[in-house]
Amino acid sequence: MVLKVFFPSCCSSADSGILIGRWISEQNSAVILAVVHFPFIPVQVKQYLGELQRVTKVSVSVLGSWSNSKQEKEESLSEFLEDLGTIFSHEPWIQISREGDSKFWSCSTLQKHSNNRKEEEIILVYYDQRKVMLSHLHPPLDTADGRAEDASKLSAIFDTVARSRVLFMTDRYDEGPIKLTHWQSDGVEASIIVELMKQASVPACMLLTFLLSLVSGICRSRVLKFWPLSFLWSKLSTCEQLGHRLQHLQVISSNRKAQNQPQLMRKANIFVSLLIDVALGILLMSWLYRKNRIGHLADTLIPVADHVAEELQDLLQWLMGAPAGLKMNRALDQVLGRFFLYHIHLWISYIHLMSPFIEMILWYVGLSACLGLTVALCILSDIIALLTFHIYCFYVYGARLYCLKIYGLSSLWRLFRGKKWNVLRQRVDSCSYDLDQLFIGTLLFTILLFLLPTTALYYLVFTLLRLLVVIVQGLIHLLVDLIDSLPLYSLILRLCRSYRLAAGVKFRVLEQQDGKPLRLLMQINPLSYGAVVQTYRLPTYSFYPKDSWASLCKKLFLGELIYPWKHKGEKQD
């Protein structure tokens, strides 16, 4: 069986000593973690390894010896390194040596009950200890048997290095009986800014938790459960977004430590998403309040609303005539046209009545941008919904009238065929009708059939207007969902430190020569950007239900309401 030795590249220039690491018998592999230099006392080394095993829960032991001499190897040193195998009694005893400046290394094994080196095939794999310890190996999405087995083998190596973090916290400046060489032997990596932020985060999280508990208590109070506050909280997208961000703040300020890597990445993604969202909102707020843009926006809003109302009036005048040369029922056409024109007149009067207060309303609405760009976008979506509420009313009137006629025609069509709809059994059954019922049914069917084109035309026009508003709101909510769900921290980590998100490894051949061990370099393959988004995507709230094209066409044909304004957001994972 091939013996695989994973050797840290940071120990290539270490002084001679013994190799400590973990032996994985299932894979016939040895993971070297550090080199202990001469001189040392074997009893102290065994005590140190026992304490290390108790803390890390990793079976760390002495695996062999390491010789790095720029001069000819002395025979006494060689015999001493071989004798260490009897002291620490590990089988097989691995001996790795590097002679001078030569690029060729020698690696052999020595059995416990034999003084001769056992000739077996050895593969020496170099790995970057820092990258392997800081990275998180993601299992492949394709869980085939072969790939799953390879992932389990790699995860054992990654897990060994990651759990040995305590071993890497000692450097050469520590006053102790044992001197080690590993990736932090020249000094432990640390940042004063990070340490200060850790110290400051504790009181900040306590204060944030207290404030969030107050806000949550107010939100759960009975006052908000009464109408119309309960209606506004459940129907407006701004309230949905505020509730969504409140949950994010509760996750961040929680004093519960992340149990695994996915939970830690989720907290980091939420924190960065909130940070960028608030930063973009503050930039938007600073842009709005500069050069009196709020006043210009308020002065533009009334003429735009008047222009939209005039266009709707012209559209209704066109429908009350002969639209596209179609012959309409003049009586019904005039009734519907005047009914909708009266609603437009009421809407224009309402807009002009509110015109003195629009600038003040926009001024206070602009302050909400400090809560985040997503909150400002949701407020914009709600403002569009309120400003186009008359279009929604037109659509509801037309859809209800059209739906009534469609269901009436279908019921009367069953009457002609001698059938009826069984409400209890939810099916169509046979039924016998007398002559009076058939006569009345024929008259009603004829009336509804000839009035259907006029109703269908109004329904079609107002449905297109409603879909136009829904598309604009859908684009706004698409941007909100993008900001809410995009794992920005993971993407930044993938861009700057791609090895932190490992999808697997690849091996590059360094040396292949007869009589010498095969030397490979293990390199980390990072996750692709699409896999990063798919793995760490945050859950969002979809304000509109997701209907298929078939379901949407069926609703349009039957006159059912599509994307009603009174709809509560649904959580999308």
From TrEMBL:
Top-level taxonomy: Eukaryota, Metazoa, Chordata, Craniata, Vertebrata
Organism: Calyptomena viridis (Lesser green broadbill)
Transmembrane segments: 200-219, 270-289, 335-354, 361-388, 394-416, 437-461, 467-492
GO cellular component, one term: membrane
Annotated GO MF terms: transferase activity
Keywords per UniProt: Membrane, Transferase, Transmembrane, Transmembrane helix
Superkingdom of this protein's organism: Eukaryota
Protein name, entry field: PIGQ acetylglucosaminyltransferase
Alphabetized InterPro entries for the sequence: PigQ/GPI1
PANTHER family per record: PHOSPHATIDYLINOSITOL N-ACETYLGLUCOSAMINYLTRANSFERASE SUBUNIT Q, PHOSPHATIDYLINOSITOL N-ACETYLGLUCOSAMINYLTRANSFERASE SUBUNIT Q-RELATED
Gene name of the record: Pigq
BP-aspect Gene Ontology terms: GPI anchor biosynthetic process
Keyword Transmembrane on entry: yes
The keyword Signal appears for this protein: no
